[in-house]
From TrEMBL:
It comes from Geomicrobium halophilum. Residues 4-249 form the ABC transporter domain. This is Phosphonate transport system ATP-binding protein. GO terms for molecular function: ATP binding; ATP hydrolysis activity. Transmembrane segments: none annotated. Keywords: ATP-binding, Cell membrane, Membrane, Nucleotide-binding, Translocase, Transport. The lineage of its organism: Bacteria, Bacillati, Bacillota, Bacilli, Bacillales. InterPro entries: AAA+_ATPase, ABC_transporter-like_ATP-bd, ABC_transporter-like_CS, MetN_ABC_transporter-like, P-loop_NTPase. It comes from the Bacteria.
Length: 264
């Protein structure tokens, strides 16, 4: 299980946009955390920094005992990324290939390309891929083309592919944004159950308050690159979450009216 330590982390883009402002966060091994906020709050930037797709501008970031800013070799970076299972809003499947082949690609971090090609993949690897598909309820369509699937089915296949990585932490960026409510709930149920079964740290990036309250154990709320909320779900009021979607001027006005607590 991975832990996350962030101290005074900032991210400033070349155009001067300050996306993250001196964030201090600690996420323990096995925690299930939702990072919540509106578009432009900094949550996607935080996701990219935590997964080493963006470099932080300042501060200290450590994940699973590794400091991404210290990586000098491609192998260090690829090993780090292999331990983090990623689930995205878009499924990134290869649509002209079979479901089984897409799942086998999840083993690329530990196997050369030729060994994950379905016709010549080992029986052991193929069995592992079928077990991953069974875990997500998709074993019956292993031979189908990925382009034949619904959105919810594609996300399940993407999760099976992620299972093939054998990750030590799962990070999901808006994993249900493209799905209808029923399929979205099924995907969140699946992700949470996989993490609990394997004792994995789970960090999901969301913008839906109801989903965050239902599936998070702890919510970290961002607004304009700053942490406004960091609490366990049992201690959070809906009015606190609503201020994440307000501008600073609106927050202050509500505070003056006595409707919400202003600030952290």
């Amino acid at each position: 299980m991975f832990s996350v330590t962030m101290s005074e982390v900032t991210k400033v883009y070349p155009n001067g946009t300050e996306a993250l402002k001196a964030l201090d966060l600690n996420i323990g091994p096995g925690e299930h955390v939702v990072i919540l906020g509106h578009n432009g709050s900094g949550k996607s930037t935080l996701f990219r920094c935590m997964t080493d797709f963006e470099n932080i501008t300042g501060g200290y970031l450590e994940i699973g005992g590794k400091v991404p800013a210290s990586f000098k070799k491609r192998k260090e970076r690829s090993t780090f990324r292999r331990n983090i299972g990623l689930v995205f809003q878009h499924y990134h499947l290869t649509h002209n290939l079979s479901v089984l082949q897409n799942v086998l690609f999840g083993a690329l971090g530990r196997q050369p390309f030729r060994k994950v090609c379905a016709p010549i993949a080992s029986s052991t690897l193929r069995l592992e891929a079928m077990n991953a598909l069974e875990r997500v309820g998709m074993e019956s369509v292993a031979g189908n083309g990925a382009d034949e699937l619904s959105g919810g089915q594609k996300q399940r296949v993407a999760i099976a592919r992620m299972i093939m990585q054998r990750p030590r932490m799962i990070m999901a960026d808006e994993p249900i944004a493209s799905l209808d409510p029923k399929a979205g709930k099924e995907i969140m149920d699946l992700l949470v159950s996989i993490c609990r079964e394997n004792q994995l740290t789970f960090i999901s990036i969301l913008h839906q308050m109801d989903i965050a309250l239902e599936y998070g154990e702890r919510i970290i709320g961002l607004n304009q690159g700053e942490v406004l909320i960091d609490k366990g779900v049992p201690h959070i009021q809906r009015s606190e979450l609503q201020k994440l979607y307000m501008s600073p001027k609106e927050q202050k006005a509500k505070w003056n009216e006595g409707l919400v607590e202003y600030g952290v």
